[in-house]
C-alpha cells in the first residue's frame, strides 16, 4: 500500500516507525520546510529513504503521485482540516493527528465527507491501543464494573519555553490551542470513550499561570456529566515542575476500580473487581515500556487502518472519535468564555473564539 507523510515535525518519528512496521511503501514526504524532512530521516531513517520523493506542497505531491492510497497528516494543528478535506475529496484514506481540526464546523464536515466519499479516516488517538487501556475496555464491555459512578483524567506534564520556541505556531489559538487541545486531548478522548461517550454537559475553567508568552491556557479543569448518570473530572496542565509527572485515568464502578497510570496511560496501577479471576493477576501492576510520551500505539493504529481499507470497514478510531475528542476541549473553552456549563452536542465553536482570553 502506497503511503505519504505530510508534516515532518516532532510526532512524525512515530509515523515513520509505524509505516515501516506495517510494511507500507513510503512514496512521498511533504513539509513546508524542506530541512524538516532531513531532520526527521536523521532521527528515524525509513526503508528505501533514497526513493522517497520530497515536496513542500501536498497538492503538487498528490498530483504527481495519484497512486497514494494512505496519507498521514502531522502538520501544525491549524492545517489539519484543510489538508484532510482535500485528500478525502481526492479519494485518499487519511490518518489525522490530533486535534482533527480547530473548530466544530470542519470536524463535522470531515465526518460527513468520509462517509460520502467512502474513504477511511482515522483520528490518531493511538493511546486507545495501549494494553492497559484495551484491558480496561474489555472489562467495561463485559460489564465487570457494573454501573459506573465516576471517573477522572489527570494529565500532569511539563512544557517549558524551549519547547514553545521550537515552533512559532505552538500555543496560538489558530494553530494549536493550549495544554488541553495539544497535550491533554488523548486523555480526554480516553475518558469520554471509556465512560460511554454520550456527554450531557461540560463545565470548565482554564488559566494561563506560567506561560505568558503564549495565547492559550497552561492549565484547565472541568466537570463532565454523562447521559448514563456518571460524572467525571478533567485536569490538564503543562505546569508541572520539573518534568512530566503522569497521565492517569481512574474509573470507579459499583463492582470495579481501575487506575491506569504511567506517563501516558501505559501502566495498570490498580485493578480490583468483585468477580476477580486468575487472569486478573496478570493485569495487577502491569507496565508497558514506551520510548516516549506518545506510547506504542501508532503501529497498532496503522495496522487497523490498513485492515479497514482492505476490508472496507470503519477503523477502530474513526473520524467521529476525532470529532468527539475535539468537542470536549472546545466545550471546556466555551464554558470558560461564557462562565456557564455547555450542553452537548456543540454545534459551532472554534479555538479562535478564545482570542483575547488571557
Tell me, what is the CATH class of the largest domain? Alpha Beta
The biggest beta sheet reads: 8 strands, mixed
Number of helices: 12
Q: What is the succession of H and E elements?
A: EHEHEHEHEHEHEHHHEEEEEEHHHE
Enumerate the spans where pLDDT stays under 50 for 5 or more consecutive residues. Answer: none
Tertiary shape:
globular
The total strand number stands at 14
If you average the pLDDT, what whole number results?
A: 97
- SS-derived structural category: alpha/beta
CATH architecture of the largest domain: 2-Layer Sandwich
Question: How much of the sequence is in beta strands?
Answer: 15-25%
Helix content: 25-40%
How many angstroms does the end-to-end distance come to?
46 Å
Computed Rg: 20 Å
Number of domains: 2
Structural overview:
With 358 residues, the protein is α/β, with parallel strands linked by helices. It has two domains: 2-126 and 298-317, Rossmann fold, CATH 3.40.50.720; 128-288 and 323-354, Dihydrodipicolinate Reductase, domain 2, CATH 3.30.360.10. It is 33% helix and 23% strand. It contains twelve helices and 14 strands. The chain has helices at 12-21, 34-43, 58-64, 80-89, 104-117, 131-141, 161-165, 179-182, 185-194, 280-283, 297-310, 319-338, and strands at 2-6, 25-30, 53-55, 70-73, 93-96, 121-123, 148-156, 199-207, 219-226, 231-237, 246-253, 256-261, 267-273, 342-343. A hairpin with a 2-residue loop joins strand 11 (246-253) and strand 12 (256-261). The longest helix is centred in the C-terminal third of the chain and has 20 residues, at 319-338. The model has no long low-confidence stretch (mean pLDDT 97).
